[in-house]
């Protein structure tokens, strides 16, 4: 026991030391709001001058200062999207990244190769809307061929999925998470602020089932007065279909503070309302090791999950880092920390020391506060960092 206490104190001291050293890492890995890096003119987003040295202890699997093993990377392939979900993105869009700022597929492949050699096993492709990026199956094929990568999943709004599902499956996508905030066509349009999306999303669901993406998870961001009257309808679907419906507590980002303040529904309330339909038992849930907690009705083929970033912090189980479309490695979805991997990579330098340093400064937990931009690190939308 005392060994464990000492070890944990040493890890925390190392973490503090790494945090104090941050300014030497360059302007990207520092306390700047990430949104500013997006806006920087080409070349002004300065890369660090010199790579940090690796310590003797810096080898082997990726373990952070709190003992969490990191083996999962969420890769955002674009900041753009064909929808404008009310809780995610402003209706007029955001200042998009320029093409030259975005990692090309070979650059993403190189980063994944380096990280796979450090213990990365699982990848999720996200965005923005990943299916708006051209030739996505080509990237999937490249990543699926990297030794050590065992699982590739995709998060999508489903609008463009139907014609691409087969190619994505053949390329190596095993699982998909589909976002769907309502089962009513006119409401989907209103929440996504784009007309005519519902039928295309439904076609995406059918295609996902047809080509055999397993398990199929459905993400529902729950908002009071907007879609919380559909909790029971979504939950009832899990009695008919082998789908894993996950109700998500809305998280505050720069553009949705009002929604986060006034329309937030805590997961306990969501589950209470679903329980009115019948007995719900805790279950292990589908593969994927995500942050959701799962329940099921007796004999139901599907499950009901809740994702509770606001009411119950699950950061102690976090196993991931994030790579933004312009090559910033983020140790946490929220907060200010990110490392520019793109510029050292383009200069032909080793990126492993930068990955290790990012790992060492991974925060113990996020500091989100309902209805407040505090803790979100200047993010305007989750689409900026790949939610
Ligand atoms: N466009 C794809 C999609 O919608 O599935 C992938 C990117 S999207 C940012 C990933 C997930 O984040 C979606 O399930 C979306 O509902 C969720 N999301 C976006 N903004 C959110 C917020 N403020 N709070 C909670 N979840 C959010
Ligand atoms: Fe686009 Fe996904 Fe954000 Fe909706 S949640 S606006 S689909 S990135």
Question: What can you see in these coordinates?
Answer:
With 387 residues, the chain is α/β, with parallel strands linked by helices. The protein has one domain: Aldolase class I (TIM Barrel), CATH 3.20.20.70. It contains 12 helices and 12 strands. Strands 7-8-9-6-5-4-3-2-1-10-11-12 form a 12-stranded mixed beta sheet. Helix 3 packs parallel to helix 4 (136-144) and helix 4 (136-144) runs parallel beside helix 5 (161-171). It is globular, with a radius of gyration of 20 Å. The two termini are 37 Å apart. 47% of the residues are buried.
Question: Terminal Cα separation, in Å?
Answer: 37 Å
What is the gyration radius calculated from CA atoms? 20 Å
Biggest beta sheet attributes: 12 strands, mixed
Order of helices and strands: HHEHEHEHEHHEHEHHEEEEEEHH
Q: What value does the average pLDDT take?
A: 84
Q: Name the structural class.
A: alpha/beta
CATH architecture: Alpha-Beta Barrel
Assembly state of the chains shown: single chain
Helix content: 25-40%
By DSSP, the count of extended strands is: 12
**Structurally, how many domains make up the residues?**
1
Strand composition percent: 5-15%
The CATH class designation is Alpha Beta
Number of helices: 12
Determine the CATH superfamily: Aldolase class I
Bulk shape: globular
Which molecules other than protein and nucleic acid are bound? Answer: S-adenosylmethionine, iron/sulfur cluster
């Amino acid at each position: 026991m005392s060994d464990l206490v000492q070890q944990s104190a040493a890890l925390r001291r190392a973490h503090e030391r790494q945090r104090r050293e941050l300014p030497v890492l360059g302007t990207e890995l520092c306390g700047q709001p990430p949104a500013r890096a997006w806006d920087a003119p080409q070349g002004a987003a300065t890369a660090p001058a010199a790579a940090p040295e690796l310590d003797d202890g810096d080898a082997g699997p990726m373990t952070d200062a709190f003992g969490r093993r990191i083996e999962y990377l969420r890769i955002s392939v674009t900041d753009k999207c064909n929808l404008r979900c009310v809780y995610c993105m402003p209706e007029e869009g955001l200042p998009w990244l320029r093409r030259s700022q975005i990692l090309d597929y070979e650059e993403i492949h190189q980063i994944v190769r380096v990280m796979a050699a450090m213990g990365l096993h699982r990848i999720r492709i996200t965005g923005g809307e990943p299916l708006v990026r051209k030739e996505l199956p080509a990237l999937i094929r490249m990543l699926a061929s990297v030794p050590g990568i065992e699982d590739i999943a995709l998060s999508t709004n489903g609008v463009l999925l139907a014609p691409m599902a087969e190619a994505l499956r053949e390329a190596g996508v095993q699982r998909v998470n589909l976002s769907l905030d309502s089962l009513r066509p006119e409401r989907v349009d209103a929440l996504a602020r784009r007309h005519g999306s519902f039928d295309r999303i439904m076609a995406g669901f059918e295609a996902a089932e047809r080509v055999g993406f397993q398990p199929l998870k459905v993400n529902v961001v729950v908002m009071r007065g907007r879609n919380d009257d559909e909790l029971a309808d979504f939950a009832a679907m899990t009695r008919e279909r082998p789908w894993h419906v996950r109700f998500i507590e809305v998280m505050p980002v720069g553009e949705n503070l009002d929604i986060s303040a006034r329309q937030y529904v805590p997961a306990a309330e969501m589950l209470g309302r679903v329980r009115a339909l019948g007995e719900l038992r805790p279950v292990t849930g589908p593969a994927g090791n995500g942050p959701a907690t799962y329940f099921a009705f007796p004999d139901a083929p599907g499950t009901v999950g809740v994702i509770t970033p606001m009411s119950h912090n699950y950061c102690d189980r976090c196993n991931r880092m994030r790579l933004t479309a312009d090559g910033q490695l983020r140790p946490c979805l929220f907060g200010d920390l990110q490392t520019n991997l793109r510029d050292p990579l383009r200069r032909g330098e080793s990126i492993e020391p930068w990955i290790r340093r990012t790992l060492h400064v991974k925060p113990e937990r996020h500091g989100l506060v309902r209805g407040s931009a505090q803790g979100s690190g200047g993010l305007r939308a989750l689409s900026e960092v790949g939610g």
